[in-house]
Design brief:
CATH superfamily of one domain: P-loop containing nucleotide triphosphate hydrolases
Bound molecules: adenosine-5'-diphosphate, magnesium ion
Structural class: alpha/beta
CATH class of one domain: Alpha Beta
Number of strands: 10
């Protein structure tokens, strides 16, 4: 069971002026759900995702994963960051097989997994290329294939399409949804883009700015495949904009429309 139970999680970063970044987050993420986490820059989205990955510990509260207290990183939870950080001296094939190599998987298993997921993300034929030969969108695809090749139960994605051009971004969103439908992994997708959060998610969790708290949760019941011009989706986007405008500390907001 690849669901999370986030119970009273707060995070305070130590320093000269300790800052509370997350405050009392309570949230259940269901197995197989596609959950969007939306909020302005600096509200603690990456911190929350790192806590779910096990890369950071909460200051207060706890996170259960599959019913067990989360203690540290685990290959069951794959992470995809905005910068895919591919090794420039390795081919795309070699980058994608990295996790399997570290685990000591044999050559045949590595080859089968790399081929499967490179096909799935649309990178067939680019196996022997190096990262500098790929566009930004293709590098993100490679980062996604690398995460998938480890057979994680959960994908934790931190603004993965933030650095690619708009039309490529829409294509990546469509392709990610197709992969999600095929693989049915739990996905936690962090973004500061309202339309992206709504188009992708089963639910959208809106965080308020500093310290990050759950402002509200929006359900997106629309069936897939979805259309971006679906009036019901646009209504949900509008409800989210209304909630954002209601937040008192408006000057902190930096949403991309
Ligand atoms: N490792 C860290 N040490 C100290 N402060 C941090 C650290 N990581 C993030 N912060 C602070 O926590 C706040 C939230 O950061 P972050 O989780 O990256 O937010 P977001 O991803 O929503 O932009 C920011 O004010 C940031 O400066
Ligand atoms: Mg961030």
């Amino acid at each position: 069971m690849a669901g999370f139970s986030i119970n009273g999680v707060s995070k305070i970063y130590d320093g000269l002026t300790p800052t509370e970044t997350l405050s009392n987050i309570n949230l259940t993420i269901k197995d197989g759900e596609f959950l969007s986490i939306l909020g302005p820059s600096g509200c603690g989205k990456s911190t929350l995702l790192e806590i779910l990955a096990g890369l950071q510990l909460p200051t207060r509260g706890e996170v259960l994963f599959g019913g067990k207290k989360l203690q540290g990183p685990d290959k069951k939870r794959g992470v995809v960051f905005q910068d895919p950080s591919l090794y420039p001296w390795r081919t795309i094939f070699q980058n994608v097989e990295l996790g399997l190599e570290i685990r000591g998987a044999d050559k045949a298993e590595r080859k089968a997994a790399v081929q499967k997921y490179m096909d799935m993300v649309g990178l067939r034929g680019f196996e022997q290329k190096y990262p500098h030969q790929l566009s930004g969108g293709m590098k993100q695809r490679a980062g996604l294939a690398r995460a998938l090749a480890n057979h994680p139960e959960v994908l934790l994605m931190d603004e993965p399409f933030g650095a690619v051009d708009h039309l490529t971004r829409l294509q990546l969103q469509d392709d990610l949804l197709q992969i999600w439908e095929a693989e049915r992994k739990t996905v936690v997708f962090v973004t500061h883009d309202v339309s992206e959060a709504v188009f992708l998610g089963d639910r959208v969790v809106l965080l308020s700015p500093r310290p990050g708290r759950i402002n509200s949760i929006f359900h997106v019941p629309q069936k897939r495949p979805r259309r971006r011009d679906d009036i019901e989706l646009l209504k949900i986007q509008n409800d989210i904009y209304a909630a954002i405008h209601d937040v008192k500390t408006q000057e902190d907001l930096e949403f991309v429309i």
